[in-house]
Design brief:
alpha/beta; Rossmann fold; 7 strands; 6 helices; globular; seven-stranded mixed sheet
């Protein structure tokens, strides 16, 4: 079993914010695959089960708010006895320009509060991270930026990234994140 986690904040107030890119990707994947999210109150999450290529993938949208995402993910990982290397987390990254994506295994939290919480609730940081660029504001409050609504240009860039990521998801889930990252990078350069 693998866990595919999208990070974001629950509720309609946050749906369209830059911070909720992880939730939006999982929503798109669920729609694409005909999956439905159900409440998992015990784990403070919304989950959807996906039988894919002989593997069970659990899609997870923590409902704890971004800064406490690890409570939900850690509890689900322990319950299903999933090792960290079988967890993939999709989230926003301020240090990447819009229309960019980076895939990395392991490492620090880079100041991202969602990852900080994951680090606190998982036994290691060896999970795969899919960082989707939301750019950094030229000036002003960073919180206002990440919790601000993505504009039309942001959403168009996001759609390109999502399409490239969906195309390489099989490769990623199969464990070859390097090949997937290279092909996604090339696809985003040519669009």
């Amino acid at each position: 079993m693998k866990l595919l986690v999208g990070l974001g904040n629950p509720g309609p107030k946050y749906e369209a914010t830059r911070h909720n890119v992880g939730f939006r990707f999982l929503d798109l994947l669920a729609k694409h695959e005909g999956l439905r999210f159900d409440a998992a109150p015990r784990f403070h999450a919304q989950t959807a089960s996906w039988n894919h290529a002989g593997d069970k993938i659990l899609l997870i949208k923590p409902q704890t708010f971004m800064n406490n995402s690890g409570e939900s993910v850690g509890a689900l990982a322990r319950y299903y006895q999933v090792d960290e290397q079988d967890i993939i987390v999709v989230y926003d990254d301020l240090d990447l320009p819009s229309r960019k994506l980076r895939i990395k295994k392991g490492g620090g939290h880079g100041g991202h509060n969602g990852l900080r919480s994951l680090h606190a609730h998982l036994s290691s940081s060896d999970y795969v991270r899919i960082k989707i660029g939301i750019d950094r504001p030229a000036h002003g409050d960073i919180s206002a930026w990440v919790l601000g609504k993505a504009d039309e240009g942001d959403r168009a860039d996001e759609a390109c990234v999502f399409a490239a990521l969906l195309k390489e998801l099989d490769t990623l889930l199969g464990g070859d994140s390097d090949s997937a990252a290279n092909r996604i990078h090339l696809a985003l350069q040519t669009k």
